[in-house]
């Protein structure tokens, strides 16, 4: 197939390579000059034969909305746009509506796999109409891992279902990472454990906790066995936050995912205003010592 | 009544003052020289008329066990020992047994109120036999706040019940403090809120969240409105930990008290090994930036 | 002062009584016929001398928005609307804008105190312009508890600050209630504790955990000492949810408030899909017994 | 090698099969008559050539302690006992001491893999002396999965290190399971998601959350796509509890593992006393409706 790919960052560039390696013709565009095959969205659209298929892979929110609005003015009836970035699933409703007004079909596609996707394939979760999914299947089949289609690809439901599934995937990921991380700290805290990294290495085979994330953690420990070179500062992307917001909206208790999110918030605080308040309170009722800020 | 009081630290000294102010004769002893009325436990026992009442108010654990063992060798049949420190409630079983072998009665008494107890009275939770409680009631009545006895004193049950009740009291206290502290941080984080301290001041009357702890927090904010002078380092005493251990033992879900305890653990970590592991993991799968430890 | 009061439910009717008892003239309106002093908003507006003060006290969201839109068409330049319901604080921006277009001033006022406010006074948190707050002060002074104004009333900041403060107040309230509740369950789980209600009764004076909520819990235990007559089904209002959403927006860790919210979600589930999944997983790897749904 | 194996339940019987398949001579014993190769521990010991190797695989706690005490009286200097059950790691100190008094060596071995271990191999975590580990290596090599030894086996440290590592492994497992379970419930709660089981099926390849536990969850969903046949009742074994106790002892924040444990506690409660207390409190201050227990 021929496909226009907008956004050639870490994810987009790898996806382009994987698609080309599988025989597709990719017309790549990036807002940064000199990276893409064309210099503008208009040029990209002009280079593609109709009915066109274009894939957006740019930062979620403002930028994705801007790109889709511009594309709505360039694409034609019968074209198909697949939004593969990390859009919030309710943004998909808006995107679909904007494009439908021009007769352009829309699919949302959650893409998992990170930097490993280029070689191993990407996990794909798609929302939209069955016929549009069928039409883009050659692309999905090239992006997903080898093996049975249903193990790396799902048509999750109507518009938004793909990004909703991806959002939940990422929420789970937060919980999984935090669980391993707490376990790592427990190993590191106990003097009987000679080498936490060796214990985690041994968990890769035969145990209940074996997983791809564990393999990555073992790889990281292999590079820096006690994480001496890095700090505990952890960013969070939107999807962990949205997961909790959806949990609240659906009244679903998600204590583990929320705890994982809050741990990241805490990791980025130099001083916690809340814990200052607790320290101050303890001093008030019990005369307990507080640490003066100059003691730091 | 006449009573021997062992341990004249912040709590013990205040209690001695309150008891004397109410007409009791207190023979105080402290391991630190020059603080007490006598120089040894033996001298204290000798000064008290039988059947004696003695009250221990020393650090929980090793020290309390040592003092009680020594007293077991000095006290006589018919004497009564009241352990008012922060003993773990199952230590009370041991204490009672050691003393019972000598014919000495035992009460455990959880004491709440901190530095304010001297003037306002202490909340008291007592475990042991009814007749022993009755015998020590003049002491309890002097220590507890004015007002109906049942609002500041309870005979909670047999041996250990007093310290169990105090342990739960402290567990609740952890949760309450953390709830206010999270609220404080939310106020401080929002630009619309001109002065978080003024909002909390206004909560002292009429609101659902009014409490003594809130008054203390307002007092603390009055001294240092943005907690600029202190750090977020928060100690925890044994009782918060024991509360979670008992929750586990009884299979009682205590997410709030546990979260409050863990927040204190986190507050004392300069770098979190767990969050380093999460940062390292994110880098592995997503190529996400980590903060080098030299960047700190 | 003269004031129009819209919404005469549990809160509104009590506030009307308190205002009248303090000498104000209240023109009350309720959508339910026969409750108010007038039969329509138009009639209420016609009855009030200009510049008018009206207070909305109706369910947050759709209904409040509808009432304010209707009032925007009835009120005149120089009038003042005070929204005292539980509006989300960012709704206040919208309300203020709608009214400003007509020259009508707007204050948002968070009101705490529940059914006790009529006699004890309400805690008030107000957002808006200083001059508008000054103008309505006679009303605020009558609604708030006796005592120093700053202990029961705060001008928290510009538009939205009042409802933001109230939202945080309610988030804290969730945490406080859950902390006491976990403590109650720990007392009830331990056989040494003869009567959990008596222990909590004794905490009302002298202890660190004394509070108004504790008094209410003791009152509830007085009516039904083991909560035998009620179930564990607990509703949540919007404000607990919004608190977590704001915590996420501000990247403030709020593990205690979130845990309290999730506990309410769980309390309303007959069967937890998540825990079914855990049960199924345990069976898969360990051959552990699951409870068939017919065993219930 | 020749080895005595005590305990032929689900785990022990499978391990015997795997060892025999790999050429070892196993003398099995079980307290239940007719299952083992011998009728008593004494007979088992008599059948084994010295220096003997015996492996205990019986329920942790009382039973394991009893068996080891009995074996201490039967084994001889130079023999080796490997405790492969789920002993608490500090029990290992006691076991080692009891046996050392008789000149019998001791290894503790955490065994993971559940019912799948017989065919796939078991993850093994061992504590004890290097020379004892070396001596038993043929057994460990047969039990662990094929592939590099260090990926399925670790000599984690001195006595207790094996069971400590296994305890942490299980704590992590709690967190992982709960993360997937929360994600499952979020998928099931959203109407856009046509089939949660299909989404999870698609996560098995290419995604960040792929793991063995996910495969098991997909298998479970394959048997019962909406878990209609089972209830949400989830047991917990000792190891999740011990993990939190150790976290407390080491002051390691473990919010995710604790939340997972508490979710299990909650799943087993028909009515939550804590949430009854919250419901009662809401009624007290707000006049909110409670559900009468007869309404259930």
Automatic annotation (TrEMBL), chains A, B, C, D:
SUPFAM superfamilies reported for this sequence: 6-phosphogluconate dehydrogenase C-terminal domain-like, NAD(P)-binding Rossmann-fold domains
Source organism of the structure: Gordonia humi
The protein's name in its UniProt record: 6-phosphogluconate dehydrogenase
EC number of this enzyme: 1.1.1.343, 1.1.1.44
Keyword list, A-Z: Gluconate utilization, Oxidoreductase
GO-annotated molecular function: NADP binding; phosphogluconate dehydrogenase (decarboxylating) activity
InterPro entries, sorted: 6-PGluconate_DH-like_C_sf, 6DGDH_YqeC, 6PGD_dom2, 6PGDH_C, 6PGDH_NADP-bd, 6PGdom_BS, NAD(P)-bd_dom_sf, Pgluconate_DH
Coiled coil: none
Pfam family, one: NAD_binding_2
Residue span(s) of domain 6-phosphogluconate dehydrogenase C-terminal: 162-293
Family: Belongs to the 6-phosphogluconate dehydrogenase family.
Top-rank lineage group of the source organism: Bacteria
One GO term of the biological process aspect: pentose-phosphate shunt
Gene3D superfamilies, sorted: N-(1-d-carboxylethyl)-l-norvaline Dehydrogenase, domain 2, NAD(P)-binding Rossmann-like Domain
UniProt xrefs under PROSITE patterns: 6PGD
């Amino acid at each position: 197939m021929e496909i226009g790919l907008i956004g050639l960052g870490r994810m987009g560039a790898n996806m382009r390579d994987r698609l080309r390696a599988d025989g597709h013709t990719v017309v790549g565009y990036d807002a940064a000059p000199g990276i893409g095959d064309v210099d503008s969205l208009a040029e990209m659209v002009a280079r593609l034969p109709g009915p066109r298929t274009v894939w957006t892979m740019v930062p979620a929110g403002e930028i994705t909305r801007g790109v889709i609005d511009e594309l709505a003015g360039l694409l034609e009836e019968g074209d198909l746009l697949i939004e593969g970035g990390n859009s919030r699933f309710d943004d998909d409703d808006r995107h679909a509506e904007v494009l439908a007004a021009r007769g352009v079909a829309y699919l949302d596609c959650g893409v998992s796999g990170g930097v490993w996707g280029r070689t191993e394939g990407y996990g794909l979760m798609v929302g939209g109409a069955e016929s549009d999914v069928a039409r883009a299947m050659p692309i999905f089949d090239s992006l997903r891992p080898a093996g049975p289609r249903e193990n790396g690809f799902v048509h999750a439901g109507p518009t938004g279902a793909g990004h909703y599934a991806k959002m939940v995937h990422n929420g789970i990921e937060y919980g999984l990472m935090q669980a391993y991380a707490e376990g790592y700290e427990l190993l590191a805290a106990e003097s009987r454990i000679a080498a936490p990294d060796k214990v985690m290495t041994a968990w890769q085979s035969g145990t209940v906790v074996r997983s791809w994330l564990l393999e990555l953690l073992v790889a990281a420990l292999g590079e820096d066995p006690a994480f001496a070179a890095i700090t505990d500062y952890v960013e969070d992307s939107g999807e962990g936050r949205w997961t909790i917001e959806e949990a609240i909206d659906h009244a679903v208790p998600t204590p583990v995912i929320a705890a994982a999110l809050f741990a990241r918030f805490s990791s980025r605080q130099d001083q916690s205003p809340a814990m200052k308040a607790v320290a101050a309170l303890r001093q008030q009722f019990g005369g307990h010592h507080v640490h003066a800020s100059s003691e730091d």
